[in-house]
Write a structure and sequence with these properties.
This protein is mainly alpha-helical. The chain has a domain of 260 residues: Myeloperoxidase, subunit C (Orthogonal Bundle), CATH 1.10.640.10. 35% of the residues lie in helices and 8% in strands. It has a two-stranded antiparallel sheet. Strands 3-8 form a two-stranded antiparallel sheet. The longest helix is centred in the N-terminal third of the chain and has 35 residues. The protein is globular and about 75 Å long. Pfam families: An_peroxidase (PF03098). Keywords: Disulfide bond, Heme, Iron, Membrane, Metal-binding, Oxidoreductase, Peroxidase, Secreted, Signal, Transmembrane, Transmembrane helix.
Length: 795
Amino acid sequence: MEEEKVDETTPIVNNQGPSYLFSGKEPIRERQSKQLQCWICAGILISFFIALIIAVCFSFYGDDPKIIPESQNNKPLYSDRDSTFKTEFFTLFPMIDEAAANWSILEPTDEEIKAALDAGKKALGDKEMIEEIISTPILNSPTYRHQRAVSTTSIARNAGKRGYVEDHATRYLAKKHNFQKSHKHSNIGIGSFTNLITHDKIDCELNPYYRTYNGVCNNKKNVHWGSAYIPFRRGLVADYCDAVSSPRCAKDGSELPSARDVSVTIHRPSYFTDKHFTVMLAVWGQFLDHDITATALNQGQDGAPIDCCASQIKHPECFTVPLAKGDPYFDDYNVTCMNFLRSVPAPTNRLGPREQLNQATGFIDGSVVYGSTEEKVKQLRSFKDGKLEMYTTPDNRTLLPVSRDPNDGCNEAAENAKGRYCFDSGDARANENLHLTTLHLLFARHHNYLAEGLAKVNPHWNDEKLFQEARKILGAQMQHITYNEFLSVIIGKDASEKMEILSTPGGSIDTYDDNLEPSIANEFAASAFRFAHTLLPGLMKFTKEYDQSEESIALHNMLFNPYSLYNEGGFDTAIRSALNTSLEKSDPYFTKELTEKLFVHDASPVLCGLDLVSLNIQRGRDHGLRAYPDWRKRCHLSSVNTWEEMEKVVDPQSFKRIHEIYKSPQDVDLYTGGLAEFPVKGGIIGPTLTCIIGDQFIRMKKGDSFWYERTQGNQKFTSGQKEQIFDTSLASIICRNSDKVEFAQRYVMKNIGDDNPLMSCKEIDTFDFEPWREHGKTTKISIDDHETNVKVIKH
């Protein structure tokens, strides 16, 4: 009930009837005088208590923009009518993660915990026995390539064994105590309890100059925050069907509609080109995504792929997508099952609901170029002049080091016979598509360009110093490009400014907050940041020069096909393709290249592809991501708990089909609902995805002690060095490190136009190494096998 409004015209006393009706012995005027005094005293007391309440509220909310008073919780902070956020919306960030409930009703005894862990170990042994005999997909078939594309490292596989034991131990206890989830009353599962293992103490360097490769020790109070090989963070606790680990089901406990049926019904093909932006926007999004997220998937023995559809033996981690009779594509191939394996259960060192494992660091640090482990970094380094190892072609061009693994899901015998191989990089997904491989090559070349430039101004620096300084600059430039070219398009410049994530050249405010966890959120990795898949067109333009006639190539023929980079001009042609091809609009619709032909190659004997949309929806259910209405509520957006409410906030055609296939609004997947929303003003995605993505990027900036704009610590850049980073654009890196690209638009994620003209690379590439010159240093050089001291003179 709303509180009655009071203003200066409201009477202090509202007497019911004339004064002469009041009885008593006191004269009327005296009684009225005393009454007035009482009201004044009461007013003073009320004012005092109101002031006290305001002071208390301010102490809770005034200094902390992350919290909004409960009285505002039900007020939507976004206007769907004009697609704008209210000012209060931005005070939500960074949002406070929902705390898991306590599982006090199932507090087990030590004997029960031992029995549960024994049951978990037995389940692991049974799984590994199945993996010894289960079928493997055909080499280089779409399902084989898919599992290779999301490669799981040996570290993750070993960690997954512990996670699997914990998962099944929790199931054992839930069954023993007859714990059952109430689908009528709650989407929330059980909480966690019982620490099983204590982390070994890690001694962090007090004031380091450089990041660790795996992200450990970025935060001295919480040394694992943002590091590789930890569970994803959750904004909302998981919604598993059994409250422990089985994939999300419908609100009433029944099965959700098949992810493929959702894809066919709602995310059908429709072709609306967005003339404002280029494919480079989506390519950068994927490159960036691989820098900060790498979900580990279950695999067979020694990392072998598993065929869940062909094998008669069922692997316990298979979660296949059923294909209905009459499917417009798969019926032609007479298949009724799409292969899908669940993500590895992350070890959490406790018993409780299942979590998933992120193999990448949660920081924008260039790990996509270098790797997230010391072993991988060493494998990629040349250990000479601070540079990365490269493959040199006969015509003296540099390419990424090659991978000669015939089972990597990319290498093909016919190409290998020509001496052409797929490539190795800091991330195993580098060969997934030609544009992505090109960015990997671009930044590997860029690292070597930085190392070479630093060596010229500091000839006394050794290999290690050159490597670390080049790595530090490259990571900073990736941060700058992401927040100032990419995010300002995705969520809009206005939202970026109000979230305070745009760069502030010359700024003196250090935004680092060591109480803010930057680790990647599960909902971000498994759903929200996959929005860019809708942007990809079915055909990519290819031209060798800007003024030449266009040729096109189907998107599916660019997957696992990096061999054109061996050709003279191949690198430049691929770059120009990403700069000259317009995006599709951000909407719920997808090209058939992604929903029917994923990971198919025309030369492959298996022409039946996969559906990326189905895989994305299935992944969200696998991870227990809460339904779309829960995320609207989380972001303080208007309710979509009824069909009437949902109809107001999503695309009309999509709403019609959502209503048709889902039994209840409470069943709608986050991925589907988020994509169906109208874009926010100034951005290209809707308010729910903006909320989830914005929150994550705030955390990655303010929770990173090595953020490039920092003003404190050994890791900070000087003002002159920052100036060079602030002047960085993706166009400048392309101009510097391509073979013969001579012209580019200033902002390559946007199409050429009056406000974004085509420019000469000589105007764009202006990076200066002078701010990195160390003055007055002494070094040792070798002259005729004799060492001599040389003074570096200040110019």
